[in-house]
UniProtKB/TrEMBL annotation:
Pfam family, one: PEP-utilizers
Cofactor: Mg(2+)
InterPro entries noted in UniProt: ATP_grasp_subdomain_1, PEP-util_enz_mobile_dom, PEP_synth, Phosphohistidine_dom_sf, PPDK_AMP/ATP-bd
Annotated SUPFAM superfamilies: Glutathione synthetase ATP-binding domain-like (SSF56059), Phosphohistidine domain (SSF52009)
Name this polypeptide is given: Phosphoenolpyruvate synthase
EC number: 2.7.9.2
Annotated metabolic or biological route of this protein: Carbohydrate biosynthesis; gluconeogenesis
GO molecular function terms attached to this record: ATP binding; metal ion binding; pyruvate, water dikinase activity
Superkingdom to which the source organism belongs: Bacteria
Length: 855
């Protein structure tokens, strides 16, 4: 951003002084540069729009890089326009600079964490502190201080404290450089970079004021709760528990003795740089600074039971039931998916249990007096006993209902039951519900297919097919092949780093209320958990079909139940996504549509697209009215009568037309330009029907060129205004504005094969974006059949073909003329993708009217 501002300042002086009169040749070079820059700018604009509309993940730096290149390119357009016009539009520099800087500032905006507050006690927190202490801490303060439900005692270490630590230790710059170029889809590279970053954080010194504040807060808790106090040090990163859950992505350290809080705090901060956390936030559109770590320090209770409650079923379309799951002891083993849990389905209106499952539980997690946690074997009588009574389930459901009523949305609630049978709320966050997916059109089992296994719980619904990849704990994530079905012993947040690769997930153990299940729903990945012996039954390396909705896995590919998945836009609503949306308001809208309107001025440019459009239109006008400033023999623009309902102005750089003498209107017979002849021959093919009559008489006064009025035929009117062609004997640059779309044909057609090429671009239309895109795809498919290399982006495309002899280059240009004539209105007709193949085939057969009755 600073470099670009200097670019503006330096060139705003140099370029505004470029007003000398130029020769036609030099102006033409500026014009050619402008045309190339115009195409590049429109491509960059399309690339930025695609980041928003295609739903793929992108980083702030990627969007900013594209925008900076676009802004610089637009400024080059303004320079070229002033070069070819003798400095006629100096005010356009100001408009490009003002708009460009605003757009880049929107994309460059980064959160700052510079509050002097380091520690805030939980009793002072509410959702008003969200930006400073993150969702986990702010929500817990809200629950205790505003909803009035019991929560543990504790305090939050602010995000500003973590930012202070990063600045003090120099980690902010070091880790920024270390992770900036990491491709999160390259799991091996991601793991290496994250391990390096983790080590840097764990070994970095704490600022003295941070260390003092932590020790003071801990001493205060010890004085209130006694020396046997044990603490949970939990992540509460800014942006956690918001529109993106970040479920299980960051570290929690349990059973911390008071003297080790500083070390545990550093470990939680370092968890920002685990592979799963980096993958998750980059995929969801959060920068490293967006997720600055606040930390929540809580007094632990030796929980009798712990678990999770969902205030609605995340996989159901109705909201009639709550889900509750729980285990004996601490709940870490439940949310990380390492054990099976007791499960209750509870009716919302009266909190009655409508279904329940009691898991066999062999151990419980407890914290140790000297710090840390341990897994303790359960007495036999507790192994098959539910960890909650029906009365306790109903009381917990009542708490969950009160929380949902307060927040006004479905919630994911973590809870603990202490030895005095008092419930404590440990966490609340918005519930990540599954995407609405079509149900498999089958009964429980698909007729004719024998399942490999059935049962378990649908953590994320949907169907998928792929090679079964059975992992053990020792498997590296980077070895998981793309498109496979991941089969694992248990759910784990660690597998989030592989969610960009896998098509589905099946696990032996786990719960729909676990962290990985929550993220799977966010990513729209079909996931079946708690099925028992999947790692033993499903054949490693063989294709299987997962129907998570109906809880079945089949051998092979079961086409009957597979459907094309609607892509999940993981970026939507994220800070990076929102900043690009804001920037695009200054970049993409086109307000200057009609050049004849009074607001079509440099001052009227409100977006970069407006500047591009204005510069292109003014360059065309200046180039084709160049005879006002030049000797007429230098090649003035002349109108061309073709018999088509098109206004065409021609400028001859030499050898493109015969000597017209005193005549001021050229006709078809006057053209010597080889590619221009071919293009018009294609447009004038007898089987192509143009709207309007072909009238060879010259009547009416409706064209002005170089200040002179010319009589023009009726057939030259309409179809989007004036079209321009710059020609020589072997070169043509044709710019067509036909109705609401734009087409450019740039070609050299000479005797040397290596010099010959055709480049074609097309964009726009009058219909909605879906129909415009279909027509662009129709043109693209036709061109591919004709041998062109084509790149299509939405309703725009670019095509090229090179190194053909003169005869075949002429044939390709002739085909382009036929295509432009035949397909100019098809955007209004293409309502279905299925129509495209038919239109392509008919065009290639010569049915340019697309008559369905033609044999």
């Amino acid at each position: 951003m600073p470099k670009l501002l200097e670019f503006f300042r330096r060139n705003s002086v140099i370029r505004r002084e470029s007003r000398d009169d130029l020769t036609l040749e030099r102006r033409y070079r500026a014009f050619k540069s402008l045309l190339a820059g115009n195409n590049q700018a429109l491509e960059l604009l399309t690339d930025l729009e695609r980041l928003i509309y295609e739903g793929r993940s992108f980083t702030q730096d990627e969007a900013l890089g594209l925008a900076e290149t676009l802004v610089g390119g637009v400024y080059d357009l303004v320079e070229d326009l002033n070069a070819l016009s003798g400095g006629a539009f100096p005010e356009l520099f100001d408009r490009a600079e003002t708009i460009g800087i605003k757009a880049l500032r929107a994309l460059s905006r980064r959160r700052s964490f510079d509050s002097p507050l380091i520690v805030l006690p939980l009793e002072r927190l509410s959702l008003e502190n969200l930006d400073e202490v993150g969702g986990k801490a702010a929500n817990l303060g809200e629950v205790g201080n505003r909803v009035g439900l019991p929560t543990p005692q504790g305090f939050a270490v602010t995000a500003s404290a973590a930012a202070l630590f990063m600045r003090y230790s120099g980690l902010q710059e070091t880790l920024g450089r270390m992770l900036a170029k990491v491709d999160v889809s390259d799991t091996a590279a991601l793991e290496d970079a994250c391990e390096n970053a983790w080590r840097h954080v764990l070994s970095a010194p704490l600022p003295p004021e941070l260390e003092d504040a932590l020790n003071s807060a801990v001493r205060s808790m010890v004085s209130r709760l006694g020396p046997d106090l044990r603490l949970a040090v939990r992540s509460s990163a800014v942006c956690e528990d918001s529109g993106a859950s970040f479920a299980g992505q960051h570290t929690t350290v349990l059973g911390v003795v008071p003297g080790n809080v500083a070390s545990a705090w550093r470990e939680v901060v370092a968890s920002i740089f685990t592979p799963r956390a980096v993958f998750y936030r980059r995929t969801k559109g959060y920068s490293d600074q967006d997720v600055m770590m606040s930390v929540l320090v809580l007094a632990m209770v030796q929980a009798r039971a712990s678990g999770v409650a969902y205030t609605v079923d995340p996989n159901a379309t109705t909201m009639r039931e709550m889900l509750v799951s729980g285990v004996w002891g601490l709940g870490l083993s439940l949310v990380d998916g390492s054990v099976d849990a007791d499960f209750w389905r509870v009716r919302r209106d009266d909190h009655a249990i409508v279904a329940s499952t009691t898991a066999r539980k062999t151990e419980r997690l407890k914290f140790l007096p000297d710090g840390g946690t341990t897994a303790e074997e359960l007495p036999e009588h507790l192994r098959t006993a539910p960890c909650l009574t029906p009365e306790q389930v109903a009381r917990l459901a009542e708490y969950a209902q009160r929380l949902e009523d307060h927040y006004g949305m479905p919630l994911d609630v973590e809870w603990a039951l202490d030895e005095g049978e008092r419930f404590l709320i440990l966490q609340t966050r918005p519930l990540m519900r599954a995407q609405e997916l079509p149900q498999a059109e089958c009964c429980e089992f698909v007729p004719g297919h024998t399942p490999l296994l059935a049962g378990g719980q649908a953590a994320s619904p949907g169907t998928a097919s792929g090679v079964a990849y059975v992992v053990q704990t020792s498997h590296a994530l980077h070895s998981i092949p793309k498109g496979s079905i991941l089969v694992a012993k248990q759910t784990s947040p660690a597998y989030v780093a592989a969610m960009g690769k896998v098509a589905g997930i099946v696990t032996d153990t786990g719960s729909v209320t676990g962290h990985m299940a929550s993220v799977a729903r966010e990513f729209g990945i079909p996931t079946l958990v708690g099925v028992g012996r999947a790692t033993h039954i499903l054949p490693h390396g063989q294709e299987i079909t997962l129907d998570a909705t109906n809880k079945v896995v089949y051998p092979g590919r079961v086409r009957e139940i597979l459907s094309e998945k609607k892509p999940v836009n993981l970026m939507k609503g994220s800070p990076v996504y929102k900043s690009l949306q804001e920037a695009l308001k200054l970049i993409a809208p086109l307000n200057l549509v009609d050049p004849e309107k009074p607001e079509f001025t440099a001052r009227g440019c409100r977006t970069l697209h407006d500047v591009i459009r204005f510069a292109h239109e003014m360059a065309m006008r200046r180039m084709f009215s160049i005879a006002d400033d030049m000797d007429m023999e230098a090649g003035p623009a002349v109108p061309l009568f073709t018999g088509l309902p098109l206004n065409i102005l021609v400028i001859d750089l030499g050898g493109g037309l015969v000597d017209l003498g005193a005549r001021r209107v050229a006709e078809i017979e006057d053209i010597r330009c080889i590619p221009f002849k071919a293009l018009l021959d294609g447009m004038r093919h007898p089987d192509i029907r143009w709207h309007g009559e072909r009238d060879s008489s010259l009547s009416g006064f409706d064209m002005v060129v170089s200040g002179s009025v010319f009589r023009t035929p009726q057939a030259m009117r309409g179809h989007g205004g004036t079209n321009y062609s710059i020609i020589s004997n072997e070169y043509m640059n044709f710019h067509g504005r036909m109705g609401h779309h734009f087409a450019t044909v740039d070609t050299y057609c000479g005797p040397v094969i290596n010099d010959n090429y055709v480049m074609f671009s097309f964009k726009g239309g009058a219909a909605d974006v879906g129909r415009r895109t279909r027509r662009a795809r129709l043109i693209a498919e036709t061109l591919r059949w004709l041998g062109f290399r084509v790149v299509q982006k939405g309703d725009s495309l670019r095509a090229e073909i090179k190194k053909y002899d003169q005869k075949r280059i002429s044939e390709k240009v002739d085909n382009l003329g036929r295509l432009l004539g035949a397909m100019r209105h098809l955007d209004m007709s293409l309502s279905d993708d299925a129509q495209i193949d038919w239109y392509v085939a008919e065009f290639l057969k010569g049915n340019y009217t697309f008559d369905r009755n033609r044999p």
